[in-house]
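Subject: sequence -> structure tokens, single chain

Hey, anyone have a minute? Need the predicted structure for the following. Not urgent.
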Amino acid sequence: MKRAAGETLVLVTAPDVDVARRLARLALEARLVACANLLPQVESHYWWQGKLECSPEVMLLFKTTRRQIRALEQLILGNHPYDTPEFVTVPLAGGSGRYLDWIRGSVQPAAK
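Reply:
Had a minute. Here:
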């Protein structure tokens, strides 16, 4: 196991698989993420505008680097149909060295 150096997991939910695929494709084409996993048939229960809601969603798991978080967030917020889309980052503590290297090598370095 290798200690992570800024690799991050980002969680985003989408209303359906078509939206999730579009968001994944946009993020991948922009080289903001190394990978996007789509987990369909997630059932979300949540408070929204003072009411308890329940809806089917698709969970997206993005693998990226800390440097690309801001750009990825802007891309998601600018292309997501929800008023308040989920965008949660989870910094990785570690992982296999080859996998962490692959994430860094697949994500375009952030513009300075």
